[in-house]
Design a protein that fits this description.
single chain, 403 residues, alpha/beta, 7-stranded mixed β-sheet, 4-stranded antiparallel β-sheet, globular
Length: 403
């Protein structure tokens, strides 16, 4: 029987995400590919108590259908959590999503028609590229670390700009204050929406946190006629996946009320509402400041692992790759010194050597960048990180010998 073909965009996808999520089930394989937190940081007992009380004390919120834009109490908590200085938020500025990935998907649904332009920080998060692939956008890369980048030129005429200012996925780079200012200025000048994806904003290991694009934007705007509601161009995406636990699948969008209304309409046709049980657990955890309680231990653990990974790289990879030590986040971006190295091929060879990496091609909308790899340091203890880098060095030398 002949059946209709699948949608054409499916032929353009990659299987890297599936590979590194499945890597943990391969005996002996060391997974340096994913952006996964260490399960030891999850506050299991506290979350179990939150779950019990959520269902027992709030059966209407947890077991019934929920509002599409999220439980009012959780939206209020997030509005209060992010309000500071000139940034004053209410629940009208907040929508709850089923993880940060849904927020990316919904942004694409409400802003993109086929062929529309996105000004994207480059390299770009592969989850965002996957989320928007069905809409066939055109990308304008913004290499924010370059001195000659024309941010306003990239954003002019684009539907939105996509950035991860805090420890970018995949490069781990921190966008500096001047570039943050330039991004907001360009959004104001061009009328382009500015997406600030911030899953790693709490993970500063060195130095004081820089202001969010959302905060910078709020400082530019006088009080609106709506009692100070934020109505600027920044669409801020947050999540509890790195601060608390990814299994909760709780994310949020903070934006102008008109954007929240549009995103809510799109969510209605997506999953209708985010799990009420998970929302009530998240609300209780935020009210009890549970993320703030566990953050010092998370930072200590991940700082030590970052240092262990970079020390192993300095021992085994100095003749093969260039990299920078990140001041936060979850990743190190290693660029091969020899331009002939294809990290797509290296990923396959690495599996034979017992290590899984992420090749750079999946972070390039055109798939042309094949010279770098993203390495994660948060999931594994120092001894495994050291062994994983030793295996990567072996795999790289074997691949180079085959050129």
């Amino acid at each position: 029987m002949h059946r209709p073909a699948f949608a054409s965009w499916l032929s353009q996808t990659n299987d890297v995400t599936q590979t590194f999520l499945a890597a943990g089930r391969i005996p002996g394989l060391i997974n340096l590919a994913g952006g996964l937190p260490d399960p030891s940081v999850w506050p299991v007992a506290a979350l179990a108590e939150q779950a019990r009380s959520a269902v027992a004390d709030h059966p209407g919120d947890t077991l019934a259908y929920s509002p599409i834009d999220g439980l009012p109490g959780l939206r209020d908590v997030i509005a209060r959590r992010f309000s500071r200085g000139g940034l004053r938020l209410t629940r009208e500025n907040v929508m709850i999503t089923t993880g940060g990935m849904q927020a990316l998907d919904l942004v694409g649904k409400v802003l993109l028609d086929p062929g529309d332009a996105i000004a994207a920080q480059a390299p770009a998060y592969l989850g965002a590229l996957d989320a928007w692939m069905p809409r066939a956008p055109a990308y304008r890369p913004m290499r924010l670390e370059a001195n000659d980048v024309d941010i306003a030129g990239c954003m002019a005429g684009a539907k939105f700009a996509y950035t991860v200012p805090n420890f970018s996925n995949p490069t781990g780079r921190l966008v500096g204050h001047d570039q943050r200012r330039a991004l907001v200025d360009a959004a104001n000048a061009t009328g382009c929406w500015l997406v600030e994806d911030d899953p790693y904003g709490a993970l500063y290991y060195d130095g004081a946190p820089l202001p969010r694009l959302l905060d910078i934007s709020a400082g530019d705007r006088p009080d609106s006629s709506q009692e100070g509601l934020y109505d600027g161009p920044v669409i801020y995406l947050g999540t509890l996946s790195k601060e608390l636990a990814p299994g909760l699948r709780i994310g949020w969008v903070i934006a102008a009320p008109e954007m929240i209304t549009a995103l809510t309409t799109a969510k209605q046709g997506s999953d209708m509402f985010t799990s009420g049980i998970c929302q009530r657990i998240a609300q209780g955890a935020l009210e009890d400041r549970l993320p703030e309680q566990i953050l010092p231990d998370i930072l200590s653990l991940y700082r030590d692992r970052r240092d262990a990974l970079c020390a192993a790289m300095a021992e085994h990879l100095p003749d093969l790759y260039d990299w920078e030590v990140p001041s936060g986040g979850m990743f190190v971006w290693a660029v091969a010194r020899d331009a002939r190295l294809d990290t797509d091929r290296l990923m396959t060879r690495g599996l034979d050597h017992g290590v899984c990496i992420s090749p750079s091609s999946v972070f390039d909308p055109e798939g042309r960048d094949r010279r770098a790899t993203r390495l994660n340091f948060t999931l594994n203890p120092p001894d495994k990180l050291a062994e994983g880098i030793r295996r990567l060095a072996e795999a790289t030398r074997a691949e180079m010998a085959a050129l």
